[in-house]
Amino acid sequence: MRVVRIAFASVVLLLSLACAASPRQTGVASGGLTYTPSTGSWPLWRLAYTGFVFQMPGTPVLTRSAANDDATLTAELSVPGPAQFTVMATPHEEEELADVDRLLADSMRAAATRLGATVRSQRPLEVAGYPGVEVVVDMMQYGATGVVQFYVGRTATYSASVTFPQSAEASIAADARRFFESMRLDEGDRPDRVGQGQVEPGAQAWLYRSPHAADFAVRMPGRPTRQALDVQTGSGTKHALTYAVGDAGRSYRVTLTQYDERPPRGQLDGVRDMLVQQGYRVQSERALQVQGYAGREVVLAAPSGTTTLVVRLFTTETRLYDVRATLPTTATPTRDPDAARFFDSFRIL
Amino acid sequence: MPHTKTRSLAFVAIPLVALAALLVTASAAAQRSPSAPTAPSPNAPSPTAPATPPPAPPETPPPPVLPPGNTAGATTALSAAGFQLRPVDRATVRVFALTGVGTRLAKGRSSHQSRLIAIARAGHGSGVVIRGDGLILTARHVVQSADTIAVVFPGQSTAVPARVVYVDPDDDLAFLQVAGPVADFVPLPDAPPTLTASQRVSVSGYPLDPRERFPAAASGDVSRMNNDGRIQLSISVNPGNSGGPVVDADGKLIAIVSERGEPEAGVLGIALVEPIRAALDDFRADVATLPPQVFSAADARLAQIVVDFLRIDPDGTPYDPAAATRALEAARETTLPPEASALVAAHAWNLALVMLETNRAADWNALRPELQAGATDLVRAALALAGRALEQAPYLRDHYGFTRFLLRIGGRAVAPPLPPVEQRGRLQGAAAPMR
User: Fold this and answer.
1) Is residue B395 less than 8 Å (CB to CB) from chain A?
2) Per-residue pLDDT for B7 more than 80?
3) Is A268 in Cβ contact with B167 (below 8 Å)?
4) pTM of the model
5) Domains of chain A
């Protein structure tokens, strides 16, 4: 896995930094090197073409870089010295985001073990919506300690690390904290993770959700669940993904079904007819479109008589989007503010 | 942009990201044509015939630029230039559909500085006005995934805003609405016509260069009805013809252009068109009763900004104060949708770069003092709008990726270079102090 490689490379980096320090600088050989905390202000730096902003106790030096294209950049910046402050951004594939917390933590622990470093502590963290992990490793053979924070974005993994002689741990603590607390990441690469599908209270919970590889954006009142399923269609079995948020009273759901070609003619009628077969009763139906994609809205009364189902269907060149809300019958679909937030915000990306 | 449906057919809307290359190619081809070797015409003089000087070409005035508004004056104005438009040509409009804004790094032609340039992701096709209130029929794939649509009438340079009001789920057809009244239109027939194999038909549309102000006509024959119900014509259509009308010898609307042959696959000289029967069905079932659309002055400004944005080359277009004024007026709108904010941000930024390149200035501080305020206004507007767009709609980070790159370089006139592979040593540009 790519992230494993990233984590592995980072630990190698940590060790190489520790090894690169002269014996005089590594506390073991010198018998105790200390770190003099900086007293001045630290300039704010931005890694070009990323949203990665940070402060360092000095001017960073570019130690490794690779431009993959105009949009992705591997770059590693360090302030050398008895303690090494390093930041790095490494691009990764968006598909590698699944279960990122466990992946990062496990890979760090495994790599550290393999290299003889002891993981002293490990804790999950989140910076500006970027999931991450902080790991503290001791490299006894070098008399060095490293603190690494990883933040995982959609297109890159960002890391910040401080390595220092163990004898300097107390004296460097304040600067290390200042360094880590300065990390900023912008909205541009924040991953949209799936969640438990619970409705969060308040209008502020209605954020745009745009799960990776889903090719849509929609406001939902919480992090949606994701469910993969195979569905039977007029042109065979197709793969579908459903993203849903809901509680006992209301639910909001987007299902996208992937086709090899354009969904077959009459597919929109087929979805409506299937619901009618299940006992739903059509209350209204109208044509609509979003961004030039053809669509249909069907409002149906549920067989139970307690809920109303509003379904909007859109077809693209290779997909069928099924956007639906289940509302209590007391709500008027055309005037319900939450239904409007949900449906009006839907965008095909 | 839409995918190619088969290996040998392609939609005929133009992705405008490739506009520059297209223009260069078209221009070069046009220049080569007169001297290109061709088979001798039967009427050409024999090589032994005495040379006679060719007659002097008649003095032909260039086609006029018509004032904004409808196309009522088109016939008269063009007639003065010695060219007649058919009714269907007068009703054929150009459709621009903006789907996003990307970016690239380029070196300024006059300043030689690295610039972050906003690049439109847009399509260009054709459409036909079918009702006097401004209802337009076009191809679905022309407007698919569009966030902002602008329509330009024949002979005009001013754009009007358009909205998609209906999209056919099964056929390549869509209906747009612009503000009426529109004098020139070709109505849908009362009943779908019967087509005959080898029947002579013609198309109208805006192939290739989207800067051309008048539609181009082409004619050919009805070849057959394909298995999928579409009609195949023996007409060469090109990118930009999509959505354009097909009419019979009487000028009656019989189809809408959808696809062309792919020359790369060896398919030349054919067009696939959507017969008007499906459009008639759509119109009667869903479109005829749609409520009227209302367009504001802000909508009109935004449509013009789409066209301004597509026409301006940050590295080669003279600075246009009117375009800058429009951009700044739009930037003051507080109710812009996020996609529109991103568009205006990109346009304002490119205009600021035009100021730099026009004045051979490396950055804003190098501009003459009287220009600095204008540039500063544009840059501030671009940054504010890009920030607002991403805050309101984070999903724009992909299709409108320009916004996040603009914010990430902090609006600096000289874009930081991407460090080369394995560069070592003192930091140069990969990180920069924030101001």
Assistant:
1) yes
2) no
3) no
4) 0.78
5) 2-189 (3.40.1000.10), 203-348 (3.40.1000.10)
